[in-house]
Amino acid sequence: MKLERSKEWWIARAAREGNHVVLAGGPVADEERESPAELRSGNLERASLSVAASDAHIAFGRFVNLMRRSRGMGIEAFAEEANLDPGEVLAIEDDVHFIPEPRTVYCLALAFKLPQERLMQLSGLSKARDVGLRAQAVRFAASADPVRELTNEEETALETFVMILSKGNHSAG
Amino acid sequence: MAPADFSPIYLVDGATGSAVAAELRQEIGAAQLTDWVTKWQPAVHEIMRELIAKGVPQDRWPQSSHWRWDQKVARVSGLLAHKGFSVTATGVCQGLMQVKLTQSARLPEQHGKPLVYVEYLETAPWNRSDCVPVRRFKGVGTALLTAAVALSEQETFKGRIGLHSLPQADEFYQDLGMCDLGPDPHYPNQLRYFEFTAEQAAAFLV
User: For residue B163, which of A37, B81, B95, B101 sits 20 to 30 Å off, Cα-Cα?
Assistant: First the structure.
């Protein structure tokens, strides 16, 4: 992409900026909520746990996406079945920063027939005490590509992850 | 790997008012992240130390001081729907922006139409009026925003862009004439959401 503007154009634009602060951005991911100072203080274990929690959150969006597609449903149809707003389903699937309402996770747990507590952890609404779940979520997120058609590998990854979510506390790393 | 796209642009020296040649690159690469670690971060720490020493309340601290660009970039690495931009002047990264191409407009008159969503935009601490009394360069944020609008045109989104503003920047987007859709209840702190229509974007690029 090439931007072709005159020197005067850029100078005029800079002048119009005045003394304003120019800054944009939604909420940051969990790991960024640690201050840089904390991250540099040597508390690597805490930092890495935080990163893993964020990955689990990314996995939540991919999980909902794959579960919906594995049922051959569009966003609107799935939202209607799960008694949810289509915009909220879209935000969950598409926006890694979006934190769903507890009611939404409850409805998803009902729709997927999965334990609500595990989905709450995955969604970022409750702290994941289960290191195994986080690790599995990271593996699942890495194996699932929400852009392509559901492949056999994704189908297998999804089925495996559903099994893990269906169980109680899982200690595998 | 093909070299990153770049366009020659100009910034304004905050102290002298003179024009300074710069580059707008469609890239956030190792060089930019190195500058973020070795130049931006120490500057931010110094500013934070001063603010704490002066007893400045937390709501007046730079609102992006906790951002970690290395993680923002790593999180979307290899994803075609995300693109990074940077501004370089005097051999140093002066501003960074990450955008996303899969979101749609919220304004009623363009609801559902695709737009370029500015996920994150930040200028170097020495270019921010909330961090230093005299900015080193003016125009970095505007240049990045120009790139977002130009990308939107290139993607046939007609210049439509959307973004969540941090409170310290609300006035800038309001003065720019972007549509202010108000605080977004879906986000913590209810950040204000702004959008450019195709017409506003066209006027912005003139």
Answer: A37
Alpha helix (H) residue ranges in chain A: 7-17, 36-40, 44-70, 75-81, 86-94, 102-112, 116-123, 131-143, 152-166
Interface of A with B in 1-60 (CB under 8 A): 1-5, 7, 10-11, 13-29, 31-37, 39, 51, 58
**B1 belongs to a structural domain:** no
What is the span of the domain harbouring residue B143? 6-205
Task: Answer yes or no: is B117 within a domain.
Answer: yes
* Domains within chain A, CATH numbers bracketed: 57-167 (1.10.260)
Burial of B133 (0-12, 13-18, 19+ CB in 10 A): exposed
CATH number of the domain enclosing B83: 3.40.630.30
The interface pTM score, or ipTM, of the predicted complex is: 0.90
Asked whether the beta carbons of residue A31 and residue B102 sit closer than 8 angstroms, the reply is: no
Preferred mutation among A7, A22, A55, A84 to probe B, highest tally of B CBs within 10 A: A22
d(CA A142, CA A139): 5
**Which of A75, A128, A125, A85 has its CA nearest to residue A107?**
A85
What per-residue confidence (pLDDT) applies to B143?
97
Tell me, yes or no, whether B121 lies in a domain. yes
Query: What is the mean predicted confidence (pLDDT) over B125-147?
Result: 94
Name chain A contacts of B144, Cβ cutoff 8 Å: 22
Tell me the average pLDDT across B50-64.
78
Let me know: does B97 contact B144? Beta carbons within 8 Å.
yes
- Do the domain assignments include residue B44? yes
pLDDT at B35: 92
A148 touches chain B (CB under 8 A): no
Residue-wise pLDDT tens digits, B73-86: 998 888 889 999 99
Q: B9 and A3 in contact by Cβ < 8 A?
A: yes
Pinpoint the alpha helices (H) of B120-197. 140-154, 170-176
pLDDT of B66 reads 79
Q: Which of B36, B38, B68 to mutate to test the interface with A (most CBs of A within 10 A)?
A: B68
Nearest Cα to Cα of residue B145 among B167, B179, B114, B178: B178
Q: What's the whole-model pTM score?
A: 0.64
Alpha-carbon span A69 to B86, nearest angstrom = 36
